[in-house]
Specification:
It is built from eight helices and ten strands. It is of the alpha/beta class and 332 residues long. A six-stranded mixed β-sheet has the order 2-3-5-4-6-10, sandwiched between helices. A two-stranded antiparallel ribbon has the order 1-9. A two-stranded parallel ribbon has the order 7-8. Strand 4, helix 4 (148-167) and strand 5 form a beta-alpha-beta unit. Helix 4 packs across helix 8 (315-330).
Length: 332
């Protein structure tokens, strides 16, 4: 993902535009004795941060999950098996997409659905690939990164949410999508960078949804949600297209005691998977993504570096994000 206005170390904005009971006919019925239907609120399950941590660690142990690699295929198998184990109906979008430099990449978008017949649906998503170069590092810049935070953390949180749904059935449809080929975009050293070289998996899905006429009430994207002392601000694209959802999520976080993570501050828009979900398939989708005003790219000190490994993953951050998303889901 990239900052609009900072686009991968000060990329230029490329002109993305943000438009966007039945009545009983028997008069003799005694109303006092007529049962009244009610919907009982489901208790919100407890998010297990240690479990999420383990899911991240397992991904990282495969190595960099760059499309076309063995690690990518092995991690794909792992993610599908776990979603199926948690009771989701799983399908994969397979296709060949072209990287900015002409490289053909095998894309695998993974979709796990709960309560497929429920009309009311919520979309949860993250990208599962990791960066093919360390273009923000000062050494081994041509080698791929592990992406524990950038890639692994969002997936780990969503796997734990899937596990909780399997243990605590929910009254709505939930679709979890792991987007592929998000992090293979044009590096910041290129002349005339193009923003649409990023997020190829979500662009593909938004134009070719897994279900005809698919729609969800709203979506929540998770990106870089595991770093120590991370803060999550109200990012520009999220506010533009889903301010109501932003306020609900941040309010839930505050109510749970996570206001130190979910900061009530509006920050610039970024190019990430949620941009294409909003503009191509028009599902209002927000992004919970780390923001750090003290770094050159406004993400974090380990972004697209080899230091993005398990050493920077923090259980308290995972708990704050995972518990907040569960609270939003189970209070629908």
């Amino acid at each position: 993902m990239v900052q609009l206005g900072f686009i991968k170390n000060k990329y230029a904005i490329i002109g993305l535009i943000f438009l966007f009971a039945c009545t009983n006919t028997n008069n003799k019925v005694n109303k006092k004795n007529t049962p009244v239907a009610s919907i009982q609120k489901l208790p919100t399950p407890s998010f297990d941060a240690d479990s999420a941590y383990a899911y991240i660690k397992n991904q990282v142990e495969f190595g960099p999950r760059v499309p076309n690699s063995i690690a990518h295929q092995n991690c794909y198998n792992y993610l599908v098996q776990n979603l199926e184990r948690f009771g989701a109906t799983v399908l994969t979008q397979n296709d060949i997409v072209e990287r900015y430099d002409g490289t053909k990449m095998q894309m695998k978008n993974i979709i796990g659905s709960f309560n497929q017949n429920n009309h009311k649906r919520i979309l949860l998503c993250a990208h599962w690939d990791s960066r093919f170069i360390a273009d923000n590092d000062i050494k081994d810049m041509d080698k791929p990164i592990l992406g524990a935070n950038d890639g692994g953390s969002g997936v780990g949180v969503l796997l734990e949410i899937a596990r909780q749904i399997s243990l605590n059935p929910i009254n709505l449809g939930v679709d979890i999508i792991f987007f592929d080929v998000e992090d293979q975009g044009q590096p910041n050293t290129e002349i005339n960078p193009r923003a649409d070289t990023w997020c190829l998996g979500s662009q593909y899905w938004a134009m070719n949804p897994h279900v005809e006429n698919y729609f969800a009430d709203y979506g929540i994207l998770l990106d870089m949600v595991g770093g120590k002392n991370a803060t999550f601000t109200k990012e520009g694209v999220s506010v533009q297209f889903g301010e109501r959802i932003v306020e609900r999520v941040w309010s839930a976080a505050e109510g749970l005691g996570f206001a130190n993570f979910f900061v009530s501050k509006k920050t610039p828009p970024i190019i990430d998977d949620h941009l294409y979900i909003n503009t191509l398939i028009h599902i209002p989708t927000i992004n919970i993504v780390e923001y750090n005003q003290n770094t050159h790219n406004r993400f974090n000190a380990h972004h697209h570096k080899h230091s993005d490994n398990m050493d920077i993953i923090n259980s308290s951050t995972l708990k704050a994000v995972g518990q907040t998303v569960l609270e939003v889901l189970y209070t629908e």
